[in-house]
Amino acid sequence: MPSLSLPTLSLAPTTRAALWVVAGGFCATAMNVVIRYVASELHPFEVTFFRCFFGLLVLVPWLMRVGFGALRTRKMGFFTLRALVSLVSMLTWFYGITLVPLATATALNFTGPLFATAGAALILGETVRLRRWMAVIIGFLGVLLIIRPGASTLDANLLIILVSAATAGMGVVTVKFLSRSENATSIVTYMVLYSAPLALIPALFVWRWPSLGALFWLLVLGALGTTAHFAVVRAYSAADASACAPFEFLRMPVAAIAAYLFFGEVTDSWTWVGATVIAGSSIYVAHREAVLARRAARRALSPHPPPSAISRNEAL
Question: Is residue 94 within 8 Å of residue 47, measured between CB atoms?
Fold first, then answer.
């Protein structure tokens, strides 16, 4: 018999990354639909706990096999900080999307990379030059187009989504800091280990036992979350962030379609315009970071470059 091979194996890395990003985007949108559905019975804080709890269950067999010895660290405080920041992001997102139109929430969530860039400069002291600062500023102008602070119909709930995006960006900053001395396995594992017990605390204040139907959808939520995370990891292992970023924003039309089909929500033109501005800014930031990372790698291979090797473009 002739041997069969998977078509994806012959695809270019960028194409594979694009397919993984799109798959992850579909899973993320499906997650949001399930969150909305389950939140009609359970408080979003309790839904957050079960999302973290089922993620922990997936991790336990792996931990039993490798043991906790591989997770030794002297930075438990920073791991705790990362988990707290990420939990706030998750709690505000799960709560916010029950109050805000799904496509609008998705558009505002795209500001996460902009917050991360600003945080890396202000907290970690990373060099962020004029081009990226301008992109960040333009991106936040896109936010103003969506929330329209001068409008009589300003929705204060949009601020909840912005808090989620900001804390997600700060989560990226903590990962950048930890990655200077810690391995990726520890960073991911401690996040999962801490999330469930920390998420239980706010869930206890609104606790009610889920019905069998709700429990089924919570299991689906956990599976979708794990699949989305896996897809993102595979995407970024196939290509760098600048190649993946444009496809991340396909989540916007997917979210708009899902919002219309499941909740009857029609996305207004201001949201589309603002989302386009935010997406363009975030893509440019990802592109510049990838370019500068490649230049830094080349300089590391040549530790004494002549002064002329640093171009005027790099200074920006």
Answer: yes
Q: Is the dihedral of CA 246, 253, 166, 138 positive or negative?
A: positive
Q: Are the CB atoms for 99 and 160 separated by under 8 Å?
A: yes
Q: Given a cut of 50, is residue 290 above it in pLDDT?
A: yes
Q: How confident is the model at residue 69 (pLDDT cuts 50, 70, 90)?
A: low
Neighbouring C-beta atoms of residue 310, cutoff 10 Å: 12
Please tell me the pTM assigned to this model: 0.80
- Select the more confidently predicted residue: 27 or 131: 27
Cβ density class 18-38: b for 16+ within 10 Å, e for less: bbbbbbbbbbbbbbbbbbbbb
What is the DSSP code string of 186-255? HHHHHHHHHHHHHHHHHHHTT--PPPHHHHHHHHHHHHHHHHHHHHHHHHHHHS-HHHHHHHHTTHHHHH
Q: For 137-172, what is each residue's pLDDT tens digit?
A: 888 888 888 887 655 455 778 889 999 999 988 887
Distance between CA atoms of 167 and 89, rounded to whole angstroms? Answer: 5
Q: How far is CA 126 from CA 108, 129, 173, 283, 298, in A?
A: 25, 10, 10, 19, 19
Distances from the Cα of 192 to the Cα of 51, 178, 189, 195, 229, angstroms? 10, 15, 5, 5, 12
User: Quick one: pLDDT at residue 54?
Assistant: 86
CA dihedral 13, 108, 186, 290 (to 10 degrees): 40
For residue 232, give the amino acid letter. V
